[in-house]
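[audit] Reproducing an earlier prediction to check determinism. Same input, same settings, fresh worker. If the tokens differ from the archived copy the diff job will pick it up downstream; this log only records the rerun itself.
[audit] input (320 residues):
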Amino acid sequence: MTTGPTTLLLHTYPAENEGTPADLERAIRNRIPDIHLERVSTYEEARRRIPNAEVIIEHRIDDELLSLADNLAWVQSLSSGVDRFDLDALERRGVVLTTVSGVHADPISEHVLGYALLFERRLLETLRQQSRKEWRPVTPGELSSKTVGIVGVGAIGGRIAERCAALGMTVLGVRRKSTTPQAVDELFAPDELDSVLARADYLVLSCPLTEETEGLLGERELRTMKESAVLINVARGAVVETEALVDALRSGAIAGAALDVTDPEPLPPESPLWNLSNVILTPHLSGGSPQYTERCAEIFETNYRAFEAGDREQMTNRVV
């Protein structure tokens, strides 16, 4: 027998993660056997069923579907970012929004280290030599002697800091909160960003996209960085001004960039970023993990129990 609010699991799922909506449904039912959970397989089916839903579990829901959700009380997003939501509109409707912030921390931190090692150990060069059948030794560096600046030291940035610190890197963090995470050696406020830009050998962007962070790095900020520095972006593409980044990479203002996110996405074929030898591009997959489904189910269960108890303050990753 099912009980509780009518919960609708939508049909889309992040392509970079192992699993499907059906797998998430099974994981949720294993944790909450009596849940009134319906899963849809198509957009049209979602349109038909969404008016009755009190709870929606979604990945990239659009405004049309949200407008049809007349009984909606809570949206559980399967993403960490909320820049695609109209938060004011949800608040006016009295709708709770929660995310799965934190489920991507381990895979993204590993992805960042992979980027850094490719540059520091000069593996990009040796891979190109291999394609040309050249045996020509190069002199690699060591991350343990480097400084990393992390802009946005939340769940993801904090885990990146831990991994970098474990390798002996000096860790500089930028965040609004004044409390310093354990793995961060020095903490800076957002208005002190220039100090971090000037010192970082690797600059990692792991902040949310907001009005304050959109275009955070432009021509001036990129030229404040060391010429030997590498930019790593696992935040959102729009945090960096694309034209300014291309100019900085072409002119040698910075040594390179590793981009899991771009502006726009997908990156169009005519973008010069594709052809720059000092750029690594991955198609927004740094958060991908075979553990994603179970981690999402765990967060959903915690939030579902709190929602059922009427204790919204105890819901994990509540944004609205």
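[audit] rerun output stored. Observation attached for the diff report: The chain has a mean pLDDT of 97.
[audit] end
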